Write the structure tokens for this entry.
Amino acid sequence: MRTSISDRPDKALALRQLIDREAHRAGFDAVAVTTPDAIPQAPARLAEFVAEGFHGSMEWMSETLARRADPTTLWPDVRSIIVLAMNYGPSDDPRELSAMPRHGAISVYARNRDYHDVMKGRLKEIAGKLVAKAGGDVKVFVDTAPVMEKPLAQAAGIGWQGKHTNLVSREFGSWLFLGTIFCTAELAPDRPEPDYCGSCRACLDACPTHAFPAPYRLDARRCISYLTIENKRPIPHEFREAIGNRIYGCDDCLAACPWNKFAQAASEAKLVARDDLRAPALADLLALDDAGFRAFFSGSPVKRIGRDRFLRNVLIAAGNSGDGGLVPACRKLLADPSPLVRGAAVWALSRLMDRAALLALRQDGEEDADVRDEWAFVAGERETEGTSA
């Protein structure tokens, strides 16, 4: 008869102590354990999210629905799930950047080295010591597989999913990276964390694009993080002004959470923070070619969206800046090889130049339909936009 660790309290306690010790030694701020069957409500909620189309163009969410719904579908041998969290709280309120329209606002998490790189190696170290101690097998995930980290983190007791759908902690507010270790060891689970949001709706009211149709429900198609990162198309006109100077993601709903008052700023050394990404000048970003973009964002999650999508975002911010000094840089991008960039440049210039002067720059022979739509919209030949996310 096989004896599990859970049948031997002394061994189970020693193993848990090792996990806690190694997690904190590796720089994680919270660690807890849950079971693969601890989130029975999550699959139905995810299915509803996808059925309503709230996932937008993120087809991978619908394609991996079954595997996300049940951790044992992803790995049948899993018996326990260790959830680890790392604080990335900022030292100031990221919303203050909205008062600096000539500079770009990059989401707090992306101002550091890519968290996948920061966390995965450390998780593997912990997992290796777990196997050395208990035997069995492990798998490590950091937002790179169909794992529902946030519901699992709530089930493990690290925090709860707030009305903005992100994890909230009484100790760290809304600023936590999550990673998981799936293991064959049978560990005693921790208690789930109750929901402490109460009647508060600060996060919902803070959203610039009204992306929450109801508490605990997010329509990603209206979310600035989705629009500037996941969306590969031109950004719909209805959201462009509200985006302001947010060129990669948005922290408004996270920053508005009252639980952040208990959070402490994360160690910049641990996260490998980059000061040059706190408030980069739009003028400098508009000058980036592909090689320059790759070099500047080396090691950053921003690099994953590519130069063209990023320049699209920067041009939206330029159009919202009111800075006529950016006109020459935007004009140059009217001839960019990327139609995504050219179309955004048309819109940016329509906000910074006289309409007649801009239309004088219009060239015949534009082959891309989206760019032609941008020119037609500026010229008044279309009452509504012809592009969408």
Observations:
- The chain is about 40% helix and 10% strand.
- The chain has two domains: 5-183, 281-379.
